Amino acid sequence: PYTDLPAHQQVGPVVISRGKGVRVWDDAGKEYIESVAGLWCAALGFDNERLVQAAVNQMRKLPFYHAFTAKSHEPMIDLAEMLIARAPVPMSKVFFANSGSEANDSAIKMVWYFNNALGRINKKKIIGRVKGYHGITLAAASLTGLAVNHRAFDVPLPGFLHTMTPHHYHGARPGESEEDFATRCAEELDKLIVAEGPDTVAAMWAEPIMGAGGVILPPKGYFPKIQAVMK
C-alpha cells in the first residue's frame, strides 16, 4: 500500500533487516529511528525480550488457532477479558481482526447485519468525516474521507457519507470559539442526517484524534454535541 510504483521499479524497496528498541537498520546498515513504530504495531520496541519469550512459549504450546464456528483458546480469552477491563466505556464483547481496515469492515458488516435482523433493511448508511482515516479495504476506504484514497478505486461505495472536519484552526469562522465551532459541526451533521432520512442512517465513525488527516484534536464540546445528534 502507498508505494510509488514507478519509483519502486527504478530503485526497489527499503529492506529493513533488524531492529532494536526504537531503531531499525536496513540491509545496507543504515540506521533509522522508527518514529511510528512500524505503523504503530511495535510500540514496545523491536527487541522486547518479554515479547520474545511470550512468543516462544506460545509457539511451543499452540502456535495458531482460529475463532470460527464457536472455537476459542486461552490467549484469545485472556486478551479479550483484559481489553474489556480497560475499555473506556462499558463493553461486553471483543471481536478480533487482523488489521484496522478489517476491523472497520467487520464493524460495518455487524451494523448492517443488526439492522437486517431487526427488519430495518433501509437503515444502512454510514457517516464518516472529511479527512478521517479508517483504512483502505473497500468499505473502510469508503468510510475514509481522503480524496487520494478514493480517486483510483471507485469509492466511496453507495451509502457512505461524509460530514465536515472538526478542525477549529482551519475551519472556524472569524471570532468563532471552539464551542461554537463544535456546535456548527453538530448542526451540519444533523442537517446531513435529516436530508438523507434518519431511518436510513445506521452509524457514524469518528477517530478520537484524527490521525492521517492531520493529527486533528476535536474542538471543546465536540463529542458530546455529536453524540447528542446521533442519539
Overall 3D shape? globular
N/C terminus separation: 36 Å
Radius of gyration: 21 Å
Strand composition percent = 5-15%
- Element pattern in H and E: HEEEHHHHEHHEHHEH
Low-confidence stretches: none
- Helical percent range? 40-55%
| Main β-sheet description | 3 strands, antiparallel
Overview of the structural elements:
This protein is of the alpha/beta class and 231 residues long. It is built from ten helices and six strands, in the order H-E-E-E-H-H-H-H-E-H-H-E-H-H-E-H. The chain has helices spanning 5-11, 37-40, 49-61, 74-86, 100-117, 138-143, 147-150, 168-171, 178-196, 222-230, and strands spanning 16-20, 23-26, 31-33, 125-129, 160-163, 201-204. Strands 1-2-3 form a three-stranded antiparallel β-sheet, with no helix packed on it. Helix 9 (178-196) packs parallel to helix 10 (222-230).
Keywords summarizing the entry:
231 residues, globular
What is the topological layout?
Blueprint: H1 5-11, E1 16-20, E2 23-26, E3 31-33, H2 37-40, H3 49-61, H4 74-86, H5 100-117, E4 125-129, H6 138-143, H7 147-150, E5 160-163, H8 168-171, H9 178-196, E6 201-204, H10 222-230
Parallel strand pairs: 4-5, 4-6
Antiparallel strand pairs: 1-2, 2-3
Helix pairs in contact: 9-10
Give a summary of the structure in a few sentences.
The protein has helices at 5-11, 37-40, 49-61, 74-86, 100-117, 138-143, 147-150, 168-171, 178-196, 222-230, and strands spanning 16-20, 23-26, 31-33, 125-129, 160-163, 201-204. With 231 residues, it is α/β, with parallel strands linked by helices.
